[in-house]
Design a protein that fits this description.
The structure holds 2 protein chains of 2 kinds. Chain A is mostly helical. Helix content of chain A is about 75%, strand content about 0%. Chain A has a domain at about 60-315: ABC transporter involved in vitamin B12 uptake, BtuC. By secondary structure, chain B is of the alpha/beta class. Chain B folds into 3 domains: about 1-95 and about 215-250, P-loop containing nucleotide triphosphate hydrolases (Rossmann fold); about 260-350 and about 435-550, Rossmann fold, CATH 3.40.50; about 360-435, no CATH class. Chain B has helices at about 60-65, 90-95, 110-115, 125-145, 160-170, 190-205, 215-220, 245-250, 310-320, 345-350, 360-365, 370-375, 395-405, 425-435, 455-470, 480-485, 510-515, 535-540, and strands at about 20-30, 30-40, 45-50, 75-80, 80-85, 95-100, 175-180, 205-210, 225-230, 230-240, 270-280, 285-295, 300-305, 325-330, 335, 355, 440-445, 470-475, 490-495, 495-505. In chain B, strands 6-7-8-3-9-10 form a 6-stranded mixed sheet, with helices on both faces. In chain B, strands 16-17-18-13-19-20 form a 6-stranded mixed sheet, with helices on both faces.
Chain lengths: ~375, ~550
């Protein structure tokens, strides 16, 4: 005899609930679109078309998704340790700085492969380094990591402004950007790879960092659910008292989790700085750090869910810009509103519809059960 | 379905109607059938006991009566009249009061404020306070429920806090009082006082329903007793016509022994010793105060005491969770000093010490984990569970299945979530994990708290078996019966100090109770002198007040 399962089967919890939330967000967004005199149906069509309707569209969607996978994983790893890392934005920014520093220093002397490995290491080291100070303060001094990581986002912005203006800006240029990297310091984009095989497609920013993001997903899954360190991390997150009992040191877990989290966020720099722009610039993170929180929430802090949620948010970004292009009455600000609604319903209100689904499921299960007991004797004998 | 009690029709004369009638109460939680057509009649002005193992459905039944849950089917009659109880508010209106296992009191409020909480009237509170104060004094006189109305509740001893709970119910004109496991937190003396109060209540016509799993309390105070098992009423007896053995058999459906058969201990060398161990917490309160004792291999030492007198802290310090402020711990001759790096749970484990924690659900396992993940808690770095930094799911699951089989954990499914196991089965899993490595020193805290009788017997046997294998066992329990049944030596703690010590076979419950309450007259002149050993022969030779199981 099997023990009673929870009120909701897992597939409803993970599969149906986010879709219901998404539909509700789209309905509310649709009402707003209607209110400004545009057609919600057309708007949806335009967005879907923009995000998935062409190879270009899909490429852009996945390019945006790459950032979100990194920041979503960053939030998830910290979350499993019971920490809320709001600092993905700053860690990503500083991660990008690290990428820029090594690219600008070594792009003349190193070949592509060592350059890329060095870029990965630099992104991780700088991102993790930026997360280390809040982590240390939390572990050893009890300063709340939510507060310190938020502050470190502002610090990251200030620091980047400074180093960009005073260190990396090309002398004489009005633009606050570094010089272009040599080609060895560029992560190959999809179009460049296809060109090697003689297939010509248009240029999009989608690059091999996406593959690295997927590798990171697998690595995070193995770490969290198949390694001793991940076991200790999850134990600490679920029950700090049990962790202490088991001889796990919570301060060490806090630091470890934040370092991993910061490193993952730092990989945004790979995608943006080495993959897309190929020079160092300001504000390339563009909110991906914060979107990562919504992505992790929607993806239930599981790498697989995070990939799906990232693609959804990538589609919203990409489809959104197409929409602003197609229907002029819908401005960029409207797009932000629609994205905000999705974040609201799938993130902040993620469990709002759960009681409703639970009641529905109970009714359904209750109706199904008597039928099953009547069938059983007949089939058995 | 009840076997002994027939459903009672409403009598013609409402004055003779039973206080409470439950007819065919049925309640399901998902797949769990908590109450199966329970029918129960409780006579007016009687003390009625309901006994059963954990999960027998007695708490569910009382929660239905008090309005926490609504029954799926069945009828409740109060004084012969059918009523619907949809919330505790309805229950209170019907004259039902409940004293919960965990008190529902505001610690920073005074007794008066707590008693009138939720029953105050008017805009200003002064009138209500005066009325409540007068009422508390009257109730105190009538029932022997003496409490200082102006005392802050958080500063009262547990026994008096419980009286405040009873006062709260009486203040709301309750005529039917439900007590859920009321004695778990009380000393034997406080328990006696409670029983006197219950008898006074009964004499004045209050109907008392006592939920417990302690059979001797049923025998001591009730008029009639209902036995529940697996959600059903299996028997009803007049207390005078039954005995503990019969009730125990009815509860578990088979014969149980209340004390395990055990050979005399053959203690060897001291395996665990503490010297001048002290612990001052972050608020500057001395939790452990110069504690000295030792446990020899092949011996069970029981630490008795009312909870909150340093036993929990002692376990935390010995297991390495908390470092002592000063003093020394010796595990198999290895010294662990205060402030040293050795004061860590993983180091202590490596020295050969295992720990079954008091707080099973928060320390002993992670409820959100599947069983196999909790089965490696504390041993997650063990080479047996995987290669290098990785954990082998299959190896850990296999080990979990083995532990489950050896300790009869049900259901034996390593993949099932920890939270889905009953308390007893969770405890068996933890014991299995901690005993699997044949520890030289075993610390056991509250091994059978919230565990049903069948599992208690099994757990006690395993603890004795560990002793017989040569482990030094330190047992901490607030259940005096358990301490008496298992210990070769008993140490009593009060306010962080050891206030008494006696060999197990010569232990006298009354003396232990006096030590636990620190009611000992100071034999010495100056300062608190610590009586040790069977220091007061006059008392130890007195016959026990309550029957104890003999082995």
């Amino acid at each position: 005899m099997s023990a009673p399962t929870g009120p909701l089967p897992r597939w409803i919890d993970i599969g149906v609930l986010p879709i219901v939330n998404l539909i509700m967000a789209l309905i509310v967004a649709g009402l707003i679109v209607l209110a400004i005199g545009a057609s919600p149906i057309e708007a949806i069509q335009s967005m879907a078309e923009g995000a998935f309707g062409s190879l270009d569209g899909i490429s852009y969607t996945l390019y945006y998704a790459t950032d979100f996978i990194f920041t979503g994983l960053a939030v998830a790893v910290a979350f499993h340790a019971g920490l809320f890392n709001i600092g993905g934005e700053g860690q990503a920014y500083i991660g990008g700085l690290g990428v820029g520093v090594v690219a600008l220093t070594f792009d003349h002397s190193l070949a592509f492969l060592p350059m890329m490995l060095l870029g990965i290491v630099a992104a991780a080291a700088f991102g993790a380094g930026w997360a280390f100070i809040p982590a240390y303060l939390q572990a050893k001094r009890g300063s709340h990591v939510v507060i310190t990581t938020i502050m470190f986002n502002f610090l990251a912005t200030a620091l980047m402004n400074y180093v960009m203006v005073y260190v990396f800006r090309v002398p004489g240029s009005m633009e606050v950007v570094s010089r272009d990297f040599e080609s060895s310091a560029g992560i190959p984009q999809l179009s460049e790879i296809m060109a090697k095989f003689g297939i010509v497609i248009s240029n999009t920013p989608l690059n091999l960092a996406f593959v690295w993001a997927i590798i990171c997903c697998v690595a995070v899954w193995v770490y969290l659910w198949r390694s001793r360190g991940g076991y200790e991390l999850r134990t600490t997150g679920l029950s700090p008292k049990a962790a202490e009992y088991a001889g796990i040191r919570p301060d060490r877990i806090t630091i470890t989790a934040m370092l991993i989290s910061g490193a993952l966020a730092g990989f945004v720099g790979l995608n943006e700085v080495m993959g897309y722009h190929r020079f160092l610039l300001l504000d390339f993170v563009a909110g991906a750090g914060f979107t990562g929180i919504a992505v992790a929430l929607m993806g239930r802090n599981h790498p697989f869910g995070i990939v799906l949620a990232s693609i959804l948010f990538g589609a919203l970004y990409q489809g959104g810009s197409e929409l602003a292009f197609d229907i002029p009455t819908i401005t960029r600000d409207m797009i932000v509103v629609i994205q905000g609604l999705v974040i609201l319903f799938s993130g902040a209100l993620a469990y709002m519809n759960r009681p409703l689904l639970e009641r529905g499921w109970r009714l359904y299960a209750a109706r199904r059960k008597p039928a099953a007991t009547f069938v059983a004797p007949g089939t058995g004998g | 379905m009840s076997t002994d009690s027939a459903p009672v029709a409403a009598p013609d004369n409402p004055g003779d109607a039973p206080a409470v009638e439950l007819v065919g109460i049925d309640k399901r939680f998902g797949a769990v059938h908590a109450n199966r057509g329970v029918s129960l009649t409780i006579a007016k002005g009687s003390i009625h006991g309901i006994v059963g193992e954990n999960g027998a459905g007695k708490s569910t039944l009382m929660s239905i009566l008090y309005g926490f849950y609504e029954a799926d089917a069945g009828e409740i009659r109060i004084d012969g009249r059918p009523i619907r109880i949809k919330s505790p508010r309805d229950a209170i209106a019907a004259g039902i009061g409940m004293v919960h296992q965990h008190f529902m009191l505001v610690d920073t409020f005074t007794v008066v404020e707590n008693v009138m909480l939720g029953a105050e009237s008017g805009v200003l509170i002064q009138g209500s306070i005066a009325k409540a104060r007068a009422e508390i004094e009257r109730l105190g006189r009538d029932y022997g429920l003496v409490v200082d109305p102006d005392a802050v509740v958080g500063e009262l001893p547990v026994g008096e806090q419980q009286r405040v709970e009873i006062l709260k119910a009486l203040y709301r004109q309750c005529r039917i009082l439900i007590l859920d496991e009321p004695t778990g937190v009380l000393t034997p003396q406080e328990t006696d006082q409670l029983f006197r109060i219950l008898k006074a209540l009964k004499d004045r016509g209050v109907t008392v329903i006592l939920i417990t799993h302690k059979l001797r309390e049923i025998m001591a105070v009730t008029d009639r007793v209902t036995v529940m098992r697996l959600g059903e009423v299996v028997a009803e007896r007049n207390t005078a016509e039954t005995d503990r053995e019969e009730l125990a058999v009815l509860m578990v459906g088979r014969k149980v022994r209340l004390a395990p058969d055990r050979a005399k201990a053959r203690p060897g060398q001291p395996a665990l010793a503490v010297e001048h161990l002290s612990l001052t917490d972050e608020f500057g309160v001395k939790r452990l105060d110069d504690v000295n004792f030792s446990v020899r291999a092949g011996e069970i030492v029981g630490i008795a005491g009312v909870s909150g007198n340093g036993q929990s802290e002692l376990l935390e310090v010995l297991s390495g969770i908390r470092g002592p402020t000063s003093g020394l711990i010796r595990v198999l001759g290895q010294e662990v000093k205060a402030g040293g790096e050795q004061c860590r749970p993983d180091r202590m484990r490596r020295l050969g010490l295992a720990h079954v924690p008091e707080d099973r659900s928060r320390l002993g396992l992670v409820s959100a984990f599947p069983a196999w993940e909790s089965a490696i808690l504390g041993y997650q770095r063990d080479k047996a569970y995987g290669f290098g930094p990785l954990i082998s799911t299959s190896a850990a699951e296999k080990e979990c299945a083995r532990l489950m089989q050896s300790f009869d954990v049900r259901p034996p499914e390593p993949g099932l979530g920890c939270a889905k196991f009953s308390g007893g089965n969770q405890q068996k899993l933890i014991l299995a994990r901690e005993m699997a490595r044949n520890p030289k020193v075993l610390l056991v805290g509250q091994p059978t708290r919230g565990v049903d009788i069948g599992a208690i017997e099994f757990i006690h046997k395993q603890i004795v078996a560990m002793r017989d294998q040569g482990s030094a066992v330190l047992l901490v329990s607030v259940e005096l019966d358990e301490i008496l049944a298992l210990s070769d030596r008993i140490i009593v703690m009060f306010q962080g100090r050891i206030v008494g010590e006696t060999p197990g076979e010569r232990a006298d419950e009354r003396q232990l109770g006096l030590w636990m309450a620190n009611a000992q007259a100071d034999p010495g002149g100056e300062g608190p002198t610590v009586p040790r050993g069977p220091a007061i022969p006059g008392l130890t030779l007195q016959s026990p007040t309550l029957p104890r199981p003999t082995s």
